[in-house]
C-alpha cells in the first residue's frame, strides 16, 4: 500500500476529478445560489412591512408585499428544483467516471496486486468509496451556496446594524477553534470506520462465494460468529464516528447559540435605547437564524470532507499503483503467426517478500514441441507458466518467446500468441457459447463446431436445455468439473495460440477421455507448442519430452523411457505412483533429496 496522501494531494485529486464536470457544477451552483438569494430577500420585505406598510395602514402596499413574496417563493422553488436535477445528474456522471476509471486501473494492475488485495476490498473501494466521493462532489455547490449565503447574510446584517454584527466575532473565533480541535478525531474515526467496512465486505464476499464449501465443512456457525464480530466492529466504529460528528456539531451549535443570546441581549438593549427599530431587530434576528444554515452546512461539509478523505486515500491507493508487469514504451508486437519457441535464460524468480521459487533456470522448448512439466507440488510449475505469459516478471535472467524477451513485446500480442489454461477452471455466468467465444469473438460456426468435437463437448451441448445458449451459472457451477475443463480447452483451441500452456487442464477428466482429448489437442494444430503440466504421469505418453522441475531448477529431462532408465527423480515419481496405483504424482509437499523415495536400480 502507498503512504497516506496529504490534504493538498487529496484536494488536487478531487479537483482533478470534478474539473471535467465543472460547467455543470457551476450551472447547478448558480441556480441553487440564486434560489438562496430569493430565500434571503424575505426578511427585508418583512422589515419593510413591519416598519412602513403596517404602521401606514395601506392595503395596496400590503397586497404588493404579499404578491412580491409570492413571486420570490415561486422563483425560489423553480431555480432550486432545476439546480438539484442538474446537481444529481452531475453526481451520477462523476460516480460513473470514477467507477470506470477504477475498473480500468484494476484491469491494468498485475497479478501480485490481485493476489494480495481481497475481492471484497476492491469491491468496497469501487462501490462505497466512490459513492462517498461522488456524494461529496454533489455538496460542492452547497459549499459555494453556503459561502454565498454567508456573505449575503453578513452584508445585510452589517447594513442593518454594524455594532450588532460585531458581537458575532467571538462566535466565529469559537467555531474556528472547535473545528480545529475536532479535525484529527474526525479523520481517524472516519478511517477506522471505512477500514472496518472493508473488512466486513471482504469477509462477506469470500463467504458468499463459498457458502457450499462452508456447509460441507459444517462451519456455518463459526462463519456467522466471525461475521457477527466483524459487523459489530463496523457498527461500533460507525457509532464512534457518529459520536465524534454529533459532539463536533453540538459544540459548534453551542458556540452559535451563545452568540445568538449575546446578539438578542444587545439588540434588545439597542431597541429600548431607541437606537434600533423593531423591524430591524426582527430582520436581524431572522438573518441570524439563517446564519445557522450556512454555518451548519459548512460544519457538515467539513465532517463529510474528513470522511471523504479516507475514501480518496483508499481510491488513490489503487489509482496510484503502478503495474509491476507493464509494457515498455518501445514494446514491439509479437507476429501473429509466430513459431512458438520458448526459452528460459538463467531465470530466477521469487514472489514478493517470499523465498526463491525458480533459480538460474535455463531450458528451451522448440517450435511445435509438446513438453510435459512434472514435479512435486509447490515445485514451481504454475509459476513457470505464469512467467511465460507474463503474469509476473523474472527478477534475473530472461524469458523469450520466438527469440524476443517477453518484456519487450506488447502484452496484447503476447497473450494472443500464448494461452494459459489455469489450474482452476473458471467460467463466466454467461451462455456456453459466450464462454467459448470469449478469447476469439469472431470465430466461425465451423471452428466452434470443430473445437466442440475436439474437446468432446457435443454430447453436453445436446443435453443442455438450451444447447449453446444455456447459461453455465456463477463460475460455471452448473457444469461438472470435467465439463468446465473441456469448455475451457475448447475456448483455448478457438484462440489458436502458438504456445499453449495447460496447467492441470485435464485433471478432472477420466483417464480414457483425457487420453483422447490430449491426442486431439496434440494434432490440432500440429505446429502448436504445448507445455503440459500434470501430476498424472500415466497421461504423458504423447509428449516429445518431459521436464522434471525440482527445487527451482530442471532436475532432469528426456523421454519417458530415457528418464525411467536413468532412475532419477522421475523414476521415483513413477514408482511412487505405481505403488499408490492412481497414476498421479504425489500432491504432498516437495521432499528434500534426502527423503526422496529410493529410485529403482
Ligand atoms: N502468489 C504467490 N505468492 C507467494 N508465494 C506463492 C504464490 N503462488 C505460489 N507461491 C509459492 O510458490 C511455490 C511454487 O508454487 P506453484 O504454484 O508454482 O507450484 P506448483 O508446482 O504449480 O504446485 P502444484 O503442483 O501444487 O500446482 C510454492 O511454494 C507456493 O507456495
Ligand atoms: Mg500448480
Q: Tell me, what's the shape?
A: elongated
Q: How many separate domains make up the residues?
A: 2
Total of DSSP H or I helical runs spanning 4+ residues: 19
Give the distinct bound molecules: adenosine-5'-triphosphate, magnesium ion
Spans of 5+ residues with little confidence (pLDDT < 50)?
583-601
Counting DSSP E segments of at least 2 residues, the number of strands comes to 10
State the CATH class of the largest domain.
Answer: Mainly Alpha
- Protein structure class: alpha/beta
Largest sheet: 6 strands, mixed
Overall pLDDT: 84
Q: First CA to last CA: what distance?
A: 54 Å
Task: Give the SSE string.
Answer: HHHHHHHHHHEEEHEEHEHHHHEHEEEHH
The CATH fourth-level homologous superfamily of the largest domain? ABC transporter type 1, transmembrane domain
Order of adjacent strands in the largest pleated sheet: 6-7-8-3-9-10
Q: Outline of this structure?
A:
With 601 residues, this protein is an alpha/beta fold.
Describe the structure.
The longest helix is centred in the middle third of the chain and has 53 residues. Helix 17 links the parallel strand 7 and strand 8. The chain has 2 domains: 313 residues, ABC transporter type 1, transmembrane domain (ABC transporter transmembrane region fold, Up-down Bundle), CATH 1.20.1560.10; 254 residues, P-loop containing nucleotide triphosphate hydrolases (Rossmann fold). Helices cover 63% and strands 10% of the residues. Helix 5 packs antiparallel against helix 10. By secondary structure, the chain is of the alpha/beta class. It is built from 19 helices and 10 strands. The strands form 2 sheets. It has a 6-stranded mixed beta sheet, with helices on both faces. The structure holds adenosine-5'-triphosphate and magnesium ion (MG).
Amino acid at each position: 500500500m502507498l503512504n497516506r496522501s496529504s490534504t493538498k494531494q487529496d484536494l488536487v485529486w478531487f479537483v482533478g476529478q470534478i474539473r471535467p464536470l465543472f460547467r455543470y457544477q457551476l450551472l447547478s451552483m448558480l441556480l441553487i445560489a440564486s434560489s438562496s438569494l430569493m430565500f434571503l430577500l424575505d426578511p427585508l420585505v418583512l422589515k419593510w412591512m413591519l416598519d412602513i406598510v403596517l404602521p401606514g395602514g395601506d392595503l395596496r402596499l400590503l397586497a404588493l408585499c404579499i404578491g412580491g413574496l409570492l413571486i420570490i417563493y415561486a422563483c425560489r422553488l423553480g431555480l432550486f428544483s432545476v439546480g438539484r436535477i442538474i446537481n444529481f445528474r452531475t453526481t451520477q456522471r462523476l460516480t460513473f467516471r470514477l467507477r470506470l476509471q477504477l475498473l480500468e486501473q484494476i484491469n491494468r494492475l498485475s497479478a501480485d496486486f490481485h493476489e494480495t488485495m481481497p475481492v471484497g476490498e476492491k469491491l468496497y473501494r469501487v462501490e462505497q468509496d466512490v459513492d462517498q466521493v461522488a456524494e461529496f462532489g454533489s455538496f460542492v455547490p452547497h459549499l459555494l451556496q453556503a459561502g454565498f449565503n454567508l456573505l449575503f447574510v453578513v452584508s445585510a446584517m452589517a447594513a442593518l446594524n454594524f455594532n450588532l454584527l460585531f458581537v458575532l466575532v467571538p462566535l466565529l473565533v469559537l467555531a474556528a477553534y472547535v473545528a480545529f480541535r475536532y479535525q484529527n478525531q474526525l479523520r481517524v474515526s472516519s478511517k477506522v470506520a471505512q477500514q472496518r467496512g472493508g473488512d466486513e465486505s471482504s469477509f462477506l464476499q469470500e463467504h458468499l462465494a463459498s457458502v457450499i464449501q462452508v456447509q460441507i465443512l459444517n462451519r456455518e456457525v463459526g462463519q456467522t460468529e466471525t461475521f457477527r464480530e466483524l459487523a459489530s466492529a463496523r457498527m461500533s466504529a460507525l457509532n464512534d464516528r457518529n459520536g465524534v460528528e454529533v459532539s463536533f456539531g453540538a459544540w459548534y451549535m453551542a458556540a452559535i447559540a451563545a452568540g445568538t443570546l449575546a446578539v438578542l441581549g444587545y439588540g434588545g438593549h439597542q431597541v429600548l435605547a431607541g437606537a434600533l427599530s423593531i423591524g430591524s431587530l426582527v430582520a436581524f434576528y431572522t438573518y441570524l437564524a439563517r446564519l445557522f444554515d450556512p454555518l451548519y452546512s459548512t460544519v457538515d461539509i467539513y465532517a463529510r470532507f474528513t470522511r471523504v478523505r479516507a475514501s480518496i486515500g483508499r481510491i488513490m491507493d489503487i489509482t496510484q499503483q503502478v503495474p509491476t508487469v507493464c509494457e515498455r514504451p518501445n514494446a514491439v508486437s509479437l507476429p501473429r503467426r509466430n513459431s512458438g519457441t520458448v526459452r528460459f535464460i538463467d531465470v530466477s524468480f521469487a514472489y514478493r517478500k517470499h523465498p526463491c521459487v525458480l533459480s538460474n533456470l535455463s531450458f528451451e522448448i522448440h517450435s511445435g514441441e509438446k513438453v510435459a512439466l512434472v514435479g512435486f507440488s509447490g515445485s514451481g510449475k504454475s509459476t513457470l507458466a505464469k512467467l511465460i505469459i507474463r503474469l509476473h516478471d523474472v527478477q534475473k535472467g530472461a524469458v523469450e518467446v520466438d527469440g524476443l524477451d517477453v518484456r519487450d513485446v506488447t502484452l496484447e500480442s503476447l497473450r494472443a500468441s500464448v494461452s494459459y489454461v489455469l489450474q482452476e477452471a473458471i467460467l463466466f455466468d454467461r451462455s456456453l457459447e459466450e464462454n467459448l467465444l470469449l478469447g476469439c469473438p469472431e470465430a466461425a460456426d465451423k471452428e466452434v463446431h470443430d473445437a466442440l468435437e475436439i474437446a468432446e463437448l457435443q454430447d453436453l451441448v445436446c443435453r443442455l436445455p438450451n444447447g449453446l445458449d444455456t447459461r453455465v451459472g456463477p463460475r460455471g457451477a452448473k457444469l461438472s468439473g470435467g465439463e468446465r475443463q473441456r469448455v475451457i480447452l475448447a475456448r483455448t483451441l478457438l484462440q489458436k495460440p502458438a504456445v499453449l500452456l495447460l496447467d492441470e487442464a485435464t485433471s478432472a477428466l477420466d483417464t480414457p477421455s483425457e487420453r483422447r482429448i490430449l491426442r486431439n489437442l496434440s494434432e490440432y494444430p500440429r505446429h502448436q507448442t504445448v507445455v503440459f503440466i500434470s501430476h498424472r504421469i500415466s497421461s504423458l505418453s504423447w509428449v516429445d519430452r518431459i521436464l522434471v522441475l525440482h527445487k527451482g531448477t530442471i532436475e532432469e529431462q528426456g523421454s519417458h523411457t530415457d528418464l525411467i532408465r536413468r532412475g532419477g527423480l522421475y523414476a521415483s515419481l513413477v514408482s511412487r505412483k505405481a505403488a499408490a496405483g492412481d497414476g498421479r504424482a504425489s500432491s504432498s509437499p516437495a521432499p528434500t533429496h534426502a527423503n526422496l523415495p529410493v529410485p529403482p536400480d
